[in-house]
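Q: I have 151 residues here and want to know how they pack in 3D. Can you give me a structure?
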Amino acid sequence: MAVLRAKRPYVQFNFLVDLGDGNPESPEAGFQEISGIGMEVTVSEYRPGNSMENSVMKITGMNKSTDVTLKRGVIGSLNLYKWLDQIRNGDQDALRTVTITLKNEDHTQDVQVWKLLRARIIKHTSGPLNAKGTDVAMEELVLAYERLEME
């Protein structure tokens, strides 16, 4: 599904988020910023004592996914809180597949898709609230997931 464009990269401000409910156009999925999408593969170093080379071998180890942070303006919806409540109460059905889709400039084509498999909320923060400020009230959501797939 990824669409190659070699002359200039795609801009970052056209994206949709599906929080696992199948509706990326809903107000609950409208985020201002997403950061931290990534993964890494650990490497173990090993060298048997009878090796003829004086260097270590690199052995591919476990794969780790980084936590993803989503930020948005407070909209008065309790859907994220309900999902968090399911997670902290141990509901086995609370894990979701979260899909983040980068769109082209005119929103007609998906150019890159990130799927966060078996995602769960691990942190929710609201605020700060300031009676003298003029900023939008923000909330932040941190997701942990087990596997990242890209299309």
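Q: Anything worth noting?
A: The chain has one helix and nine strands. Residues 15-150 form a domain with the Pnp Oxidase; Chain A fold (CATH 2.30.110.20).
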